[in-house]
């Protein structure tokens, strides 16, 4: 094939955030913006990681993916990649890309998504690169890519026509080829090896169990019918917003109490379904609801961990270890302690779990931000989490006869709290604040941290320590700092402040609040009520209103 060299100039600001490079579509549409980043990536990888190699490519179906896919294919060919596996119509969820990379032993893969951020010409686009184990590229690589975007002078692109992505099959261009694959089959095959589909099917087909899944017009729309309906026997009308759309039907594809309000209303209506779930833009997040009951993600991962070896065949041989991101509540810590399992606390973002998994130290992990997963792949996995929950409910109801009351999602969670205690948790998001005020607030908090000492009084709370979280990777020794300011009190309560690394405009301030409660008689309290004193403290300690000018958060989870 003929390779053309196109001269180019560095573009500022192409630094990767928590999960890939995310900007407004309009930014990516600037001349060479995406091409520069892709070429900088190839300039950053050792040649043996891609020359004549195999890469995967897919995305969540959002606006600009079609153009982007062609650009990526041509630059990959121009840099000597041997073959690219692309999901049909460019569709592959984030967990499916991870699964495909692992199964096909690819050198890596691209994910075209800005995840839970809205899509469409006026909204967001994003790109992420995953490595050969299927995990998001580590910071050592993304830092290199950023460095190369600042010195780039040439893009190497293959002179080939656009590739038709609408039919499964192989197209050859000399030594380079593109294989369009079914987005579902490799992923489904993996899930079938992880879960007992027969057990889950038994639950879903019960007439006294009603299930609903909201795909939010995002990528899991392509997976929901093949998996829940065709394989597990759910009815077709149990899938809502099941068609992936380029703008997610004007929605904000983030499965939480604010942006998945329609689903929440259905579950909280009188005589609502028994089980509800939703997933985000790229299919790696999940929200789990019971009838009139919300499972906070920090509890979800703890509960899955506590029940995994009994209810999920993949974990029958044992769970190697557990991990959570730093702001995620300590509910999982208690399970690790009780089950005597290795436990890890990592910075926000899935990339930090992969090393622990590759080293064989970690099986199940999660984040408070609706991300849950395991070492079956190296990304969080929305449908995996839904199947894990269905497995638990199915297992617990193995012997529930027709006509008897089913053991519900809320029964299972309350029982878990009674055993382990309840970690009340809430997150307040202040989206699209002025960057200046938000940065100043974090500076101010860092200053407070440096002046604080154990024993300081904060209202009725006594400080155990305050810091800005630093993580040393136990596998490769790499260190990341400034991962979130935390105030930890002697009773285990915590207040944490971070700025989001996934936004595309202004700054999003996240405040995480957590308090442990052992007393069962208090477990039924609403989290907002139970946490009120600590939330007030969090707002006053940070002077958040003064710095951001915000009276109320945009999202509460
Ligand atoms: C957020 C979440 C984080 C998650 C990340 C990617 O990051 O807090 O837990 O891993 O999004 O999720 P931040 O930096 O905005 O807080 V996804 O589903 O957008 O890829
Ligand atoms: Co996502």
Question: Overview of this structure, please?
Answer:
- Its main location: plastid.
- InterPro entries: A-D-PHexomutase_a/b/a-I, A-D-PHexomutase_a/b/a-I/II/III, A-D-PHexomutase_a/b/a-II, A-D-PHexomutase_a/b/a-III, A-D-PHexomutase_C_sf, A-D-PHexomutase_CS, Alpha-D-phosphohexomutase_SF, PGM.
- The model has no long low-confidence stretch (mean pLDDT 95).
- 33% of the residues lie in helices and 25% in strands.
- With 557 residues, the chain is α/β, with parallel strands linked by helices.
- The chain has a 7-stranded mixed beta sheet with strand order 2-6-5-3-4-9-8, sandwiched between helices. A 7-stranded antiparallel beta sheet has the order 20-21-24-25-26-19-27.
- The chain is globular.
- The protein has 3 domains: 3-183, 3-Layer(aba) Sandwich (Alpha-D-Glucose-1,6-Bisphosphate, Chain A, domain 3), CATH 3.40.120; 187-420, Alpha-D-Glucose-1,6-Bisphosphate, Chain A, domain 3, CATH 3.40.120; 422-556, 2-Layer Sandwich (TATA-Binding Protein), CATH 3.30.310.
- Helix 10 packs parallel to helix 11.
- It is built from 18 helices and 27 strands.
- The structure holds alpha-D-glucose-1-phosphate-6-vanadate and cobalt (II) ion.
Can you give keywords for this protein?
7-stranded mixed β-sheet; alpha/beta; TATA-Binding Protein; Alpha-D-Glucose-1,6-Bisphosphate, Chain A, domain 3; 18 helices; 557 residues; 3 domains; binds alpha-D-glucose-1-phosphate-6-vanadate
